[in-house]
Amino acid sequence: MSKCVKCDKTVYPMEQLSYLDMLYHKSCFRCSECNTTLSIKTAKSYQKQPYCNTHMPKEKPTATTDSIDQERVKSMTQQQSRVKYLEGYEKQKGHYTTITDDPTLLRAKENAHNISDRAYKGQQTQGSV
């Protein structure tokens, strides 16, 4: 005869309940947390222990450090990115990007030139004594 996992007594075929290849008495098949009587339909399993739906433990993610391989891949990716950036930088060296002049930019440029010219020639601005 088989033994009940919970009470370690003999389980007879009429009163046995098989759950995850383990035998229980019907009255011994209870939630590991709150001791509520369970059935095969209401039972949830966690580390081969029966739980009710309410007390079923939840898996929580844990923080992990990067493995050596992950760190190596990360550093290689950064190096490749830096090499590509430097290649692009070297290609653009000596070149400039043309910007089309819009009326606001032209007005600001003219004002800056006038202010600089007045300062150089020592002219006073309007309204000053």
Helix-strand topology string: EEEEEEHH
Structural class: alpha+beta
Describe the global form.
rod-shaped
How far is the N terminus from the C terminus?
Answer: 117 Å
Low-confidence segments, ≥5 residues, pLDDT <50? none
| Number of contiguous helices | 2
State the strand order across the main sheet. Answer: 1-2
Question: Whole-number average pLDDT?
Answer: 85
Describe the structure.
- The protein has 129 residues and is of the alpha+beta class.
- Helices cover 34% and strands 14% of the residues.
- It has two helices and six strands.
- The chain has helices spanning 68-92, 103-121; strands spanning 2-3, 10-11, 16-19, 22-25, 44-46, 49-51.
- Strands 1-2 form a two-stranded antiparallel sheet. It has a two-stranded antiparallel sheet with strand order 3-4. It has a two-stranded antiparallel sheet with strand order 5-6.
- The termini are far apart.
Summary keywords:
two-stranded antiparallel sheet, alpha+beta, 6 strands, 2 helices, 129 residues, two-stranded antiparallel ribbon, rod-shaped
List the helices and strands and how they pair.
Layout: E1 2-3, E2 10-11, E3 16-19, E4 22-25, E5 44-46, E6 49-51, H1 68-92, H2 103-121
Antiparallel strand pairs: 1-2, 3-4, 5-6
